[in-house]
Specification:
Elements lengths: L16 E12 L8 E7 L5 E7 L14 E11 L11 E12 L23 H37 L1
Parallel strand pairs: 3-5
Antiparallel strand pairs: 1-2, 1-4, 2-3, 4-5
Length: 164
């Protein structure tokens, strides 16, 4: 599922996936029909904040959300933010549902670009030029793959060290 920024959320679906950091959290006690809630101010990588509400019934779903830690949040409801005292300036607020999933990103993903060796060249291209360009690209790809592998290995080692 594609990661969406908080500014792009709309209330027409509940299958969003966002990467957010918890800036602040608190428990709101209430004697009203809805009962107690756990509330969060979340921030995405663009610096946009949104108010998130979790009813007591779903507290177990958000146990992985911790202040200052980045997490992925999937399958939540988006509602119009109303009222005089709004927690953020965002036009919507989020609600955790029974289908919500919270996961912590444990590994850094590395993007590696691959060269398509099966690409057909135009008839107008010189075959020797095409093969020399291909060799140059392959050499660049090997250098990039080697660097990417080293960075991924370093990140994995760092993650293993953090878990210990």
């Amino acid at each position: 599922m594609e990661i969406t920024f908080l500014n792009d959320l709309k209330p027409y679906k509940t299958t969003w996936k966002v990467e957010v950091k918890v800036l602040h959290s608190w428990e709101q006690h209430s004697i009203c029909h809805g009962g107690d809630t756990l509330e969060f101010i979340l921030e995405d990588k663009m610096g946009v904040n949104i108010h998130c509400i979790c009813k007591r019934l779903f507290f177990a779903r958000v146990k992985n959300l911790q202040v200052g830690q980045w997490s992925f949040l999937e399958n939540f409801a988006v509602h119009q933010a109303t009222g005089i005292y709004r927690r953020t300036s965002h036009i919507y607020k989020m609600s955790i549902t029974e289908y919500s999933i919270v996961t912590n990103p444990s590994l850094t993903t590395c993007k590696v670009l691959f060269n398509d060796h099966n690409k057909e060249y135009n008839d107008s291209e010189d075959v020797l030029t095409s093969s020399s360009k291909r060799k140059e690209r392959d050499a660049d790809l090997n250098d990039m793959n080697s660097t990417s592998k080293k960075l991924c290995a370093k990140n994995i080692k760092m993650e293993k060290t953090k878990e210990d």
